[in-house]
Amino acid sequence: EAGVTQFPSHSVIEKGQTVTLRCDPISGHDNLYWYRRVMGKEIKFLLHFVKESKQDESGMPNNRFLAERTGGTYSTLKVQPAELEDSGVYFCASSRDTQSGELFFGEGSRLTVL
Amino acid sequence: AQSVTQPDIHITVSEGASLELRCNYSYGATPYLFWYVQSPGQGLQLLLKYFSGDTLVQGIKGFEAEFKRSQSSFNLRKPSVHWSDAAEYFCAVGPHTGGFKTIFGAGTRLFVKA
Q1: Residues B76, B62: Cα–Cα separation, whole Å
Q2: Interface contact A101-B4, CB threshold 8 A
Q3: Min distance B44 CA to chain A CA atoms (Å)
Q4: Per-residue pLDDT reduced to its tens digit, B11-21
Q5: What is the pLDDT of residues A35-60, one digit of tens each?
Q6: CB contact set of B97 (below 8 Å; sequence gap of 6+)
Q7: For A4, which residue in chain B has the nearest alpha carbon?
Q8: Which residues neighbour B37 within 8 Å (Cβ) at sequence distance 6 or greater?
Q9: What pLDDT score does B97 carry?
Q10: 8 A C-beta contact, residue A24 and residue B87
Q11: What residues of B are in the A interface, CB distance below 8 Å?
């Protein structure tokens, strides 16, 4: 069974440009989460999808961030326009349900904004 | 406010020595508690979790953790560390019912010396 995959693994962009990160969850996992870790600090929650619906997006920093999950399969996280403080590692995780507690993580996408 | 504190940013232990990684949490309700590990080039992997019952929980790779409600702690232990245990370890807490928004600590990086 394939795990959670994220693309790209590393992206370097200029301030003001746009970047789109992609996450493919484990097949059959309805729950998909985005997290971000900035500068070795805590891994912070961004949002949670249940299938194609946003269950909780309280962690999204501002309206420059747009997450989608069309069809309830893969998800994209777009940052437009990118700012310096957006640099960090963006993790995607998935789970079959919310009761087991376990999250399955991808390797992360490292974003560097210059 | 809900939070997780891992007081040690990094720890170095000798191979074969015992290990204890500290974790304290602040959470208003009965929490789910987790330890995840991130090895180089990999995503986070669940080591163990505590939901209820026996406060000493066993996990994978020979790790265990003890929940102490009076101290709001969930420390991770291993009796004998192997070089392959070198990684970053994250303590996390989540809600007990409904929805799901895991809160992570800042991580403790473990170095193992020969």
Answers
A1: 11
A2: no
A3: 5
A4: 999 999 999 99
A5: 999 988 899 999 999 999 999 898 99
A6: none
A7: B43
A8: B44, B45, B47, B61, B87, B88, B89, B90
A9: 46
A10: no
A11: 4, 32, 34, 36, 41-46, 49, 51, 90, 94, 98-107
The reply to whether A44 touches chain B by the CB within 8 Å rule is: yes
Encode pLDDT of A59-88 as tens digits: 999 999 999 998 889 999 999 999 999 999
Cβ-based neighbours of B114, under 8 Å, separated by 6 or more:
B14, B15, B83
pLDDT single digits (tens) B92-108? 998 654 446 788 999 99
Q: Are strands A19-24 and A5-7 parallel, antiparallel or unpaired?
A: antiparallel
Distance between B104 CA and the closest CA of chain A, angstroms: 6
Closest partner CB to A41 (pick from B36, B41, B106): B106
What pLDDT is recorded for position B98? 45
CB contact under 8 Å between B49 and A101, yes or no, is: yes
Residue A44 DSSP label: E
Contacts of B4 in chain A (CB under 8 A): 42
